[in-house]
## 1
Amino acid sequence: MSFFKNLFRKKEQPQPEPLDFENVKIPASFVVIPNKLNVHVFQHTVHLRERQFEALAYVTEGMTHLKQQEMVLVICNKEQTCTFQEDPIHLFKGFYSLAEKGQIIGKGSTSYFDNKPLSGWTGILYTEMSHLPDQRFPANCLTLILVSTDELQMAKQMGHTRVLSLLGVANSFYPHPYWSDIDRNQLPVEQMMSKSLLSRMTTINLPIGSVTRVNRMLTLTLPHEIPNNYFSLTTMPPLHPVALLLGLNLEANGCLVWTWDGQPSAITPSDGDGSRMGGCILILFGQQPVSTIRLIEDGFGIGMTNEKWSELWESILHKKEFSLESTTDNMRFELVWK
């Protein structure tokens, strides 16, 4: 029996008629929960700069009634011979059941399955993209990206955007692929994690925020409403370096990428110039004699005096705007709420 058939099943409730997965012909549509959830499966062509390939897309219809974004899972392999799998159907059904209970999956969420149900991959990262190149994909949907256990752990410890941007470089696609290649090589996670500053400092996972540099202005953007599962800080942290693990501003046209050798790197769209450069992380330092702003790994670092440190965290805790001027390079930093 498929792993997902029992994953979220409610006890002592009548089950609907089983779905028929025999002799499925693509395109196909499945009534997963009558009058509530449908899943559409169809061929999709992924277009890259120098090549294109076929993939199979699984798309939900009906999630938004529960204030859950619709979901898209696109799967391909090296041979471009992806065959239909029923596991994604059961997966979406389980997510619908969670949404009925008020458990909403959003950008920056993760899922882990210990028996590798999806073509050998154990994890899922959930993200949003400013544009998906197929009109059959719903607007404002969540894109599901399959990852390994190690990649999932790195996303939790060092941020989604770091993992996704590395996959973007590996696939030459900005800001990251919206498809999952089940035959791809895994990222060298152990080597990367051991060399990162993030392994030695406090981190706050905040994928619904972003940091973007435009000219000499660095802007940290946070939403007015931050769910507790993203950010539950109620007091100012001690004077130790803190790294915010952020999402990518959908209006950015470039994203810094970690190379773990100290050399700055970035990925941009084919028509982008990186004039609105997004970062994966923002590291905050107190106990500095003056204010400074600089590149660190795949993001930015801000050094500040203890006075500015207190002012910044008070602004974050009470949702107020904040700014400072770098005394060394004519840079300016601002915190804005949207």
## 2
Amino acid sequence: MEYTGGSDGKISFWGPVSHTRYVFGGKTKFSYVDARDVEGMLAIIEGKHPIFRRAPVLPKQPPVEAVAPETLVEEATIDPDLAVATVMVGDVSDGEITELRPDVGSMTLVELRDAIITASPETIEVWLAQEREGKRRAGAIQMLLTAKGE
């Protein structure tokens, strides 16, 4: 779901069916929403305009095959529209990027929780290493270990 409202700060919305709390606004423009809540949230109007719209859903990437170290490229970029750092991982021998991975250090715990849902096992492992070397948030490490199955 994409928040298109005008709030510069964070605002809580509760799903009309699931009663799940969703936080949007500020830097949080996109978030996963329970499918049962989508229609109700699309009906929320601010002024004369809806404040939510459906965001495109990206398909989950297939597992990445191991590649020789000399053909693996890692490039960090920052997307100003999304306000998150992204690490692109790809095998340069075929010219394709195989996975887009936000930097765990730039995510809040809520954003991390939502991102874990569609993250590959490789991404979970990378995020865990980043968190242990960076912010060392106990809650983030516990979420990542749980997602990893530990």
## 3
Amino acid sequence: MKNTNTKTLTRVALLVAIEVVMKLVGLGSVPMGPLYMSFLTLPIAVGAITMGPAVGALLGGVFGAVSFYDAITGASAMTGALFQVSPLNTFILCVGMRVLMGLCCGLIFKGLQKLDKSRTWSYIVSAMTAPALNTLFFMGYIVLAFYGCDYVQNLVSVKGAANPFMFVVLLVGVQGVAEFLPISSSGHLSIAQNLLNIDTAVPEFFDVLLHLGTLGAVFVAYWQDIKDMIAEFFRGIGDLAHRSTPKPLPPARRLILLIILGTLPLFAVLPIRKAVQGLGDNMVFVGAALIVTGFLLFLCDRVRKGHKTERSATWLDALLVGVGQAVATLPGVSRSGMTITAGCFVGYERRFAVRFSFLLSIPAVLGANILSIKDAVQAGIVGAEVPMYLVGVAVAAVTGYLCIRLLKYIADKGRFGAFAYYCWAVGILTLVLQAVK
């Protein structure tokens, strides 16, 4: 065991040394105007593929530290200018995005390896994702955090490349991911607005369409369940007309009733909806809520596996999960995280807990849109922006669907703990940043 650890540490140290040497001798990047084409992603890809996502994240952090040093000293024209605008956002841009890139590269390889029996193309594809993700995350965060600053706007005007579609794809992609993963989309948007000074506001009509896009992802992922429930709904009306009820109730009909019961607690939130939304400006509350979400996800992995499905879940079970959904209207509390955890606590089979969570979101999202659509129409619709809206809906639907598939996989493995650590890290960082603000 000690020999293995020594070998791993030696390999990591060697890759770190390669990164540093490449930077010092000028082989780390090639200048291309204000940007650089970087080769430092190569050792990151090697480490992520051969030693795992954690090593990829570590090597990405080294790359980020070098990049942030260039920003501080002004060695990089772009990051140096952005550092003058916001040191915090520049640190996240240089370090955070590179850590995320290395982590994702390793995770992608682990996922592809299970599909690649020959173990050849998974290495090629994963290696190619490192520079691609580096560009996506780096440029994406520039658009989100710095798009309105004079330096970036000057570049945009000089290049003649003002493209609102890029902003839509990035912002909506982030929102689509955070919407379905158990990390609280509302909490992240509050942090972006209040601590990072990123303008995440979108037109009200666009916001309605985005939620319909994420709702479309649920319909695609669970179409068979939805189709069965629709058919059973009309059969139920026919049974009522004939005053007959099959015993036991068909599973799809029981599922409809469970969803109705799970939705009822949301009505208790309606009278205080504005007050709940206002808590999004309280960063101490949001940070604490993310930490609590992390503890719930941590406990979810450790609760005894249940076996209840729509055939055996009780009405009280559905009501308790619905209470969890109502609590999740608080900024910083994840809706999917809270409902999946509540489902596991009442004894749901893990896959059913995920499935019920997303099916339960359908009336919640539809209800929220109905409440917002009047204001959205009154705010007006700009015809020239409709194509951009459609791109946003498509991106929200695709990213949402991919996240649902990911959660299905995680539910099978029982590993929500990774999201717990993420929520703890973001929650603690939020409290620290608010304290020093």
## 4
Amino acid sequence: MFFDTFTEPIILNIDKYFSTMMHKTPNTAMKSNTEMVKTLKERCMEDMLQHLLLLAGDRFSLIERQVLNEVLARNKTFREVARSLGQNADRQELIFSRAFEKLIHAIEEATSKLLGYEKIEKELNELKAAQHSLKEKMSLRNKFSPAQRKVLDMSIDATELSARVKTICSHGGIRLVSDLVALTRGELRKLRNCGETSAEEVENFLNKHGLTWGLQV
């Protein structure tokens, strides 16, 4: 039946929760609590259904809302709904079928919007992280004097370093002095053709300008 196909998975999840709840209830109190739990379960289903109907706005007629509530929240058959609402079971099933399709469509739309919001939130978080990183970099740069910042922004080719050191830096992808100071002496020594003499020259250059190895700028 249509009812079994589309409503059973929804009701099954609710039943699973309340079955667990009843399992945790002491045996002496279980019988007296059965009706209370049943009523509570219906209320939870009704609350959930009301939230779902809100997603759909004014798409549902009064009879569609009534049928959805009776079938989904109160777990009634179409025959039982027909008796309570004064219409035949086939008519109730048709109303429910159309209303349920509207409900599913509303849920899909809401899910799509939610995914859109999550994407926007992710992008905003990425922007905030980038902004925070930029602020940290600016804070680090503010620790240097104007003269030091000028040196850090210089290209390696514009410095007084030897042609040999400039070639080593070029092969290592080091374009600016700020790239150079980010290295440790050991990392510089690992570059092609960089010997102790070249490393010593770079260190003297850094010391001259009040800089050191391993600076993140």
